[in-house]
Amino acid sequence: xxxxxxxxxxxxxxxxxxxxxxxxxxxxxxxxxxxxxxxxxxxxxxxxxxxxxxxxxxxxxxxxxxxxxxxxxxxxxxxxxxxxxxxxxxxxxxxxxxxxxxxxxxxxxxxx
Amino acid sequence: xxxxxxxxxxxxxxxxxxxxxxxxxxxxxxxxxxxxxxxxxxxxxxxxxxxxxxxxxxxxxxxxxxxxxxxxxxxxxxxxxxxxxxxxxxxxxxxxxxxxxxxxxxxxxxxxxxxxxxxxxxxxxxxxxxxxxxxxxxxxxxxxxxxxxxxxxxxxxxxxxxxxxxxxxxxxxxxxxxxxxxxxxxxxxxxxxxxxxxxxxxxxxxxxxxxxxxxxxxxxxxxxxxxxx
Lengths: 112, 229
Known about the structure:
The structure holds 2 protein chains of 2 kinds.
Chain A lengths: L2 H25 L7 H22 L17 H18 L2 H18 L1
Helix pairs in contact in A: 3-4
Chain B lengths: L4 H31 L3 H10 L3 H13 L3 H11 L3 H8 L10 H6 L3 H9 L5 H28 L9 H18 L3 H16 L5 H27 L1
């Protein structure tokens, strides 16, 4: 990829990301108290987070095509996810949970 | 003499974000360079895009050779949650003057959490917190990108940091909200999209259908209230 294409790619990402941040400030200032906006503002973010977790774990498909079929990273992914969740429920320290789970995942993938 | 104590409180507030952004920024830098992005481009992305999950997605799409339309749609979908951050900060950012465009630009999940939990409603302090967080992110990206370009380091599996971040954010959302509805709805939509849609449209389909169902849920709640009134 040449430098011009790379710069255009980065510019598109930057403008799009800024758009998602600035739109409410310019477009919805007058409707901030509308109950539908409040409803979506309350429930959409947690729903999106949950979807992103499933998206990130989608390679784990133990029953693909009605057969036991787990990719080599499938089980490490699930075990590391349980470690992250357990650490986080226990200590409530985001950094500890992320580093602990990622370290264990890297160890399982590299050594296993 | 320059007033150093105006930086002390913002620095202390941004410390937990520093501990998160340095390794996560480094993970981004390593991943970007591994996919073939030059070091300067990885740091430039952290300067002008400045979105954790968004940048991981961007380098993944860059590596896959995705087109600009795909990138635009995927970024819009992934960052659509930012739309709702602004709503709760409309009043908070009022009167911040020249700082306002930067405050809006730098509105990541972590900065949003810090700014909304600050008792001090000072615009100058909010600006300094945002700037420091941005700095940690860029510094992490630079360290990761430079280290991965120069040092032999087996980084296989480091991309799991992103999965771990999503799990942590979901647990934080769950403990704040204490309602099953958005999570049950999200699991149903994600599973349906996983089964019914090709991989590249899975996120769009899942988030789109979840938004539609929330709209339906809002109308049902409103109709119920109307019937009771």
